[in-house]
Amino acid sequence: MTTRARYDGKTVVVTGASGWIGGAIARRFSAEGVNVVVTAQRRDRLDALVDELGPERALTVTADVTRREGLDALMRAAADRFGGIDDLVSNAGNAFPRAFEELTSDEWRHFMATNADSAFLGAQAAPPHLKRSHGSIVDIAALWEPKWYMPTTFG
Fold first, then answer.
1. Burial of 134 per CB tally in 10 Å (0-12, 13-18, 19+)
2. Do residues 71 and 118 touch, judged by C-beta distance below 8 A?
3. pTM of the complete model
4. pLDDT digits over 34-88, tens only?
């Protein structure tokens, strides 16, 4: 059995798909015959990605992945369009806009909601769909911004 045949017709949900990591993941799955459902904050990039992959096997869903309701809606839309979900790739993330000690508490909360809460909430929203397919969840965490640091000493 070829790799393509093994994955053909499966469905994956990729959060954070407008960035280069999420976009590359979506492209690779699509190349293997997987239906791809993408979400992120930059809708224009998602629409371009779906156009590239082919709208018959790719879908853009607008969802707030920092809220359980958003992830539930994302999973429902994916399952409704493609008949189920086989895998979830939680890739949503952002970096600090400036040095750590300059962050506001609101910026910290937004960072944690996007990078950590979305993975946790996705892991709660996906299992009803993944249990049927014996699917998987892949959580990706990366920090792009080299300014990210937590100094333990000053001076």
1. exposed
2. yes
3. 0.87
4. 999 999 988 899 999 999 999 999 999 999 999 999 999 999 999 999 999 999 9
